[in-house]
């Protein structure tokens, strides 16, 4: 792949990650509600899921889903069910008396692991992310160039790293904007994430 083609690929990735989507919404909402550290851990989980999507699309699973729409629909419903489950858990925590203490306390290993898994599964159970990889990456693979597997690996690694960079920027911006907009924690801030998860679930099912 020539340098100009790879630069075009990076610009196309930047354009894709600048468009509003479920991953951006999740990172922004997490950064605003839970702070930059939790949002960055969530972004790492999303990056891990993107790497999985790259591998699955290379293995042909995306093509299998296209030829079997019922499988695609099952993945959609599984993703929506998971997002509704997260919304219910977060809402339950928001209504509990311990929520204020847990929010003010430093992040624990358990909360970091939960944020990582949340980001990973939210992206992994979004079939659109898998279909995006399967349709976008092959357009930049040169058939008569170096081994196609190696090209695909490089393109996939660039996709994951560029996506992580954008998510990290979104996490920092959301956390800083949230701090500036409120002098003290809003009593409604704890309901931001549950609302986002419900909206993402509805978009996943109807999209």
UniProtKB/TrEMBL annotation:
InterPro entries per the UniProt record, alphabetical: LeuE-type (IPR001123)
Where is the protein localized?
Answer: Cell membrane
Write down the membrane topology.
Answer: Multi-pass membrane protein
Enumerate the GO terms in the molecular function aspect: amino acid transmembrane transporter activity
Q: Which Pfam families match?
A: LysE (PF01810)
Q: Name one GO cellular component term.
A: plasma membrane
**What top-level branch of life does the organism fall under?**
Bacteria
- Say yes or no: keyword Transmembrane present: yes
Q: Which residues cross the membrane?
A: 39-66, 120-140, 152-175
Q: What are the record keywords, sorted?
A: Cell membrane, Membrane, Transmembrane, Transmembrane helix
What the entry lists under PANTHER family is as follows: ARGININE EXPORTER PROTEIN ARGO, ARGININE EXPORTER PROTEIN ARGO-RELATED
* Protein name, entry field: Threonine/homoserine/homoserine lactone efflux protein
